[in-house]
């Protein structure tokens, strides 16, 4: 059964190649997913592997660099909005004098900023791969 699944995956990969061959960011994304599949397989995590194989098939069949770029830009916008809302919450709690709540919100804000930086790095990587 495993051999059949591996063969099917390989056949689907080859069949889908022309669809996304001109999309280097999609190729990169597919390679990332394949690495995760290999890791899950090595660890015997069948459910994770199965989900990742479905994701890989979707990337191979439907991925376009423009879509990845648009999605990355949208994620950045959403994260920026989250940061703005968090800052407004901090200001409100500061006015109330709730220092414990302010401290917790500032910690969340720092995590949000780190995530924003990671999203920006991902966008830069996509742009560097020619996803423009």
Automatic annotation (TrEMBL):
Which parts form a coiled-coil structure per UniProt? 69-129
Against InterPro entries, the record matches this protein to:
DUF1090
Q: Which UniProt keywords apply?
A: Coiled coil, Signal
Leader sequence range is 1-21
**In its UniProt entry, what is this protein called?**
DUF1090 domain-containing protein
Species this chain originates from: Alcaligenes ammonioxydans
